[in-house]
Amino acid sequence: MTNQNTIPRAVSVSYNKRTGKLTITLSTGVDVSFRPTLLPELATACPDNLDVIEITPSGFVVLFPRLNEGFSVPVLMRDLVTGIEASSDGRHAALRGWR
Known about the structure:
2 helices; disordered C terminus; alpha+beta; three-stranded antiparallel β-sheet; 6 strands; globular
């Protein structure tokens, strides 16, 4: 069983319109930057809708209220490390209850 204290959590998230990248600062001190087009949920979002970002109290989910979308931080980290895109069902299962 995985200890929740070892799972990376989002501490801060920002979107940079100039670079077109989201940057997540994790509880581990690592910053992860990527283009939102990597995520099916954000692929067609206009930059103005990426300005408002929320992190759930657990730090495990990042939400975009203007889009009514979000993603699981642990699932994103797994996908970025393995290079495997999780199904949208897997991402949405992680978000249930946060919308």
